[in-house]
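Inputs:
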Amino acid sequence: MPHTCETRFRVRYAETDQMSVVYYANYLVWMEVGRTDFCKMLGFNYKEMERDGAFLVVTEASCRYLAPARYDDAIVVETRLDRLNRRFVTFGYSIRNADTGNILAEGSTVHVAVGLDQKPKSVPQPYFDMLTKAARQAGE
Amino acid sequence: MPHTCETRFRVRYAETDQMSVVYYANYLVWMEVGRTDFCKMLGFNYKEMERDGAFLVVTEASCRYLAPARYDDAIVVETRLDRLNRRFVTFGYSIRNADTGNILAEGSTVHVAVGLDQKPKSVPQPYFDMLTKAARQAGE
Amino acid sequence: MPHTCETRFRVRYAETDQMSVVYYANYLVWMEVGRTDFCKMLGFNYKEMERDGAFLVVTEASCRYLAPARYDDAIVVETRLDRLNRRFVTFGYSIRNADTGNILAEGSTVHVAVGLDQKPKSVPQPYFDMLTKAARQAGE
Amino acid sequence: MPHTCETRFRVRYAETDQMSVVYYANYLVWMEVGRTDFCKMLGFNYKEMERDGAFLVVTEASCRYLAPARYDDAIVVETRLDRLNRRFVTFGYSIRNADTGNILAEGSTVHVAVGLDQKPKSVPQPYFDMLTKAARQAGE
C-alpha cells in the first residue's frame, strides 16, 4: 500500500477570482478532498467515522502558495500522514499542476478527535489502527 | 411594519470570478442572507425554528441576472414574501447596487416545510402566524 | 457523438451545510462543471473562447431540487443543449445520484454572448458551428 | 487613528457544514473581508491599487481554530499589520464571537506585491506610505 494518496480534478470556474487565479481559501477545500480520499485508501470512510460519533475537527491549517492555478487546470493533490497520536492527526499536502508537475502549494492540517459532545476523545480504535499502519509506512 | 426587508453588505473578493464579476451561484447565497433577515424582521429566528425540528427546504430557486456586481460594490438585497400556504413558502428578492440603485438581479425561492425525518409537514403554528401577517401586509 | 455529456464527481464536505445536505447554491457550481465538460465534448475549450474575447454570461439560472445530496455521494451531471440562436444559448442539466440513479435536481441556465466590452455580440462562428451541430443532434 | 480594524457580520447558512459549524476554509474568506476594511481604514481602496496595476498576492496563510462559529453568530474580525517591507506585507487576524467575546480563531496571511505581469515588484509608494504609518502605530 502506498503511503500517499493522489486525488485528481480540474479547477472549477467558481474557484477563480478576479485575479484570474484560484482564490486562496479554495486550497483548503482541495486539502479536504485529498483527506477524504486518503482515509478511503486506508480502508475507512470518514463519513462512517462521523456516524460512529467521532469527528476529526481541524485545529490548525496552513498553506504556502508557490504558483497560481487557473481555470480548467488539471490538479493533483498528494495527501500524506505527517504525525499521529491518540488525540491528534496531522496531514500534509502537496498540490501540483498535473500537466506540468509544478508545485502550486504545500499545506498542512492538524485535527483533534472529538465526540458528539464536541469534547476531545481518542481516535476510535479501528480508525486509529488504520492510521497507525499508514504512519508506519510513511516512516519507513 | 414594512413588508420587505433590506439587507446590506459589500461584495467579497472571494465572490468574484475571473470575469471580474460576482460568480452567479453567489446570488443564491445572498438570497439566503436576505431570507434570514426577513424572518428576523417578522420576529422569528430561523435558527430557533430548526431547533424546534422544522426546516424550510428549498425546492426551487431561480435568478435573472441583469447587471454585474463587482468587488467591494455596496449591495442591497430586498426580500419579500411572495406566496404562502401551510406547506409552501415563496420568497422574492430584488438585488440592487446600493450606490447607483441599479437592479442587478431578481430572484425567487420556493420552500417546503419538513421535519427532522425530512418528511413534509405544516409550517409550525407560531411561525406560520408570523408569515401570514407578512403575507397580508404584502397583499395590501 | 452523443448529444449529452456526463460529468462525475463526489460531494465535498465543503459543499454540505448544517442540514447535512448539499447547500442549494452549489448545484449551480455543478452545472458550471457540467457545462465546461459539455463544451469540451463538442470540441471547444471555453477557456479558449474567453481568450478569443467572447464570454457566455449567465442571464438566467433555475433549479428544481428533488432529493438531497450528501457528503461523499457519487454525483453525475448530465448536460445538454436546450436552445440555441446567434445570441443566446440555453443549457439543461439533470443531476443524479450515480449509485442509485435517483434524480436530485433539474436545472437550466441561459447565456448571452458578450465581448470584452461586456456588450452583446454573436457567438463567434467556429463555436457557433459546434453548438449548432450539438443542437441538431439533440433535435433528432 | 487606531492600528487595528474591526469588521462585523453574521455567519451565513452557506458557511456552515454538516458538523453544524463554520467550514474551516471560510475563515480565510473572513480574513480577506477584514483585510479589505483595514486597507480602507488606512485610506486606500485595494480595488484602486489593482487598477493601478499592483496586486497583493497571498504567499502564506495560516489559521488556528480555537472554538466553533455557528449559523447567525455575530462575528468580529480584528485585522492588524504584523510586518512590512518593500516586498512583503503580513497581516494578523483575531476572529471573535461578538456577543461572548470568545476568540474563535487566530490567523495570519503573508502577501507579496506583484505587477500585471505577475512578477514581484515593490508596493507602490503611496500605498507603502499608508502601510508604513499603520506599521509605526502598531509598534508604538
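The beta strands of chain A are 4-10, 55-65, 74-84, 88-97, 103-114. Flag for discussion at group meeting.
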